[in-house]
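#onboarding

Welcome to the new folks! Below is a worked example of what a typical request in this channel looks like: someone posts a single protein sequence, and someone else replies with the predicted structure as tokens. Don't worry about understanding the tokens yet, we'll cover that in week two.

Example request:
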Amino acid sequence: MDFPGYFLIVQDFINWAKTHGCPVGPGRGSGAGSLVAYSLGITDLDPLAYDLLFERFLNPERVSMPDFDVDFCQNNRGRVIEYVKSKYGEESVSQIATFGTMGAKGVIKDVGRVLDMSYSEADRLSRMIPTRPGHNTTLEEALSEEPQFRAEVRNNPQARKLIEYALKLEGTTRSLGIHAGGVLIAPGKLIDFCPLYAAGMLPENVISMYDKKDVEAVGLVKFDFLGLTTLTIIERALDYIEKNTGVRPDIEHMECDDEDTYKKIFQTGDTVAVFQFESPGMHKLLIDAKPTQLSDLIALNALYRPGPMDLIPDFLDIRAGRKKAEYADPRLIPILEDTAGIMVYQEQVMLVAQKIGGYSLGGADILRRAMGKKDVAEMERQSKVFIEGAAKNGVSEEVATHLFELMRKFAGYGFNKSHAAAYSYVAYKTGWLKNYYPAEFLASSLSEVMTDPEKSLKILMDAKRHGVKLLGPDINESEFNYTSPKTMEIRMGLGALKGVGSAPAEAIKAERDKNGPFKDPFDLVKRVGSQLITKKIIQVFAMAGVFDSIEPNRRKWFENADVVVQSAQENEKAADQFSLFGEEPSNEVPIKEVASWSERTRMEKEQYVLGFYFSGHPLEAYHSELKRNFGAVVAGTESENPGEYLVAGMYIGCEQRRGKDGSPFVTLHLATPDGPVDYSVKNQYFEQERARIKEIPKGEIVVVELKKSHSKKSGKTWASPGAFYPLYELRHRQKAHIVIRPAEEADPKELERLILDVQMTHPEEAIRVDFEFSDDRSFRVRLPCPYKAAADWTLVRDLEDSPSIQQVEVAYGL
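Example response:
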């Protein structure tokens, strides 16, 4: 089958990538178990050191082509594919087609469109199909399991007709796409082996019209070129470190034995942005397991998956000495002792078959595959072979049968150790970088999630906890990506701003590097050009504080954005015309002077363009009001002791979903200055209060009744939320009122307008408004709107933004 040729082709493009600035992963999948691959530099992890089995990758009893999955830096993967095309010829290299099929939700919408059903109605029907993690629910399953969906189909003739067609179309091919990583390299022209397809009739978009199974069936060899963002993050972090320190760590050849990294990062669960270990569940597992070496990370990586996850409590108890590991035969000890006597890896199943059942490792791999596929007939045959082989090795039939059943169970969900080892090696590298260079590593990580505000905020909050100084976007400092200008500093990139693409950001940096810093927005548009720096860009920059180092009044440049751009456009036209006196056109134009936005408005504008609050958080303005009048504290800052508490946060929404067992559950999402806080609310309460909860606007402050309980047996404390209320409801109950304190230099006409705006028209629904002047004069009016408006940010913000108002406050009591 010419394996040497295959290995050498893989070695060639990996060597090219490594020598041309394209980071390559240490290995992926079962190929990491190949000593030849390690020797050739295809993989970076010594398979002998971690007991990785070559037979899991290739063996003479399972005749198949080798299949190396290779991870490349996401930003450079295309360059490697282009190299392969240039090496073997464009007519011999292409990517592979995939065929998308109609799922239950999609087919309902497609058929509904053909039947002229309204989008909203088809969407309503599709939403009745339950969404479950790791499982695509079919129409048949939904009809069987969802009473609401079944009743709709039964009672609605239009829905019944739709589902009748949908059932016939479900699962049929709907679309053609490109395989995520598959690349074909043919021994001649591809058209001699398979049909080709050019998306958009472009030659660079040529792909095979056979999918990955069919290309192998016709004798073509598939190579997997996969993009791994983590490699991009590591490479960029190393660039930042070298820039800040003058030294580039040799991360490719490091040993995975740094005690400080295990102690400070992995044992504490400080794994935000750490590859493979950043989920909340993994965070808790790391704290409980206290890993001290790479083999521990490999085991935890393999354990934290559906199936073996159920064995985590036993694994932890045995590691901690609370339980004793049980081995049915002493020969199992060297195979299972690293994983506390539990079969975690597929390779362990193979070794048990070899040591106990007398299998060759090739035969053991055949057994593992059969177990994974749950082939009943094959299992019956293999059971007899295993028991007979075990008897020859002195193992009783009872023990052999017990072991075989354990193997059958674990083989169904056991993880490939070679893959777990390679990815844990990458995880260790990210943990090491975070431990020693948190700013550089987290800045690099932020650059990959700039378009995801939730992920960005999580990493920013983590950087803050690490003592990293967070700097906002700046016209004379920021690049497109997040950067680390100094050790322990992160500067926000312009690419994090809504609507700002790489073109204007890169043009700004290029001009700044060439001709120095910008003096003001006029200078910016004049030098970079009004085609790239539009009115919208100026306004986004103003809202985000990009000009703060030049002029802290953000509102000034926001409201004068059109003047700035118009001036630049006129100068551009004038520059194209001959000037009689050779004078440069002047861009001095009058601009409107305006008062700065209030603190609250400034934060709102910033949140609009970033997707999160950066320089402050609105909840901070409510601390004293919540504490003094309700005894509430910011969610997440309450005591860990058992008891009843009132906690507050900014309302993001309530999400109703279904668990694996199909039962509904509700998550209340809050935002706080320290990041998001989620609570699991009882579904019964949510259903009872659905109408009221639906009225709560996003961004409102809510107060939650929280009860904390503690179990002496498990040593765990948990929080149980009860009712929750928007602040405007609580203010109404407490008869809160608004106090307005005008500025000393207040314009009388402006004050008169404000007073007229809050004149009483509906006393029975009105909110009291007190005007208090610095000379002790005061008077009272009524606000003509329902009580909900008392907490309406629009009202308070408009009052705060008036130059005639010094302070607006919500007060309680007389």
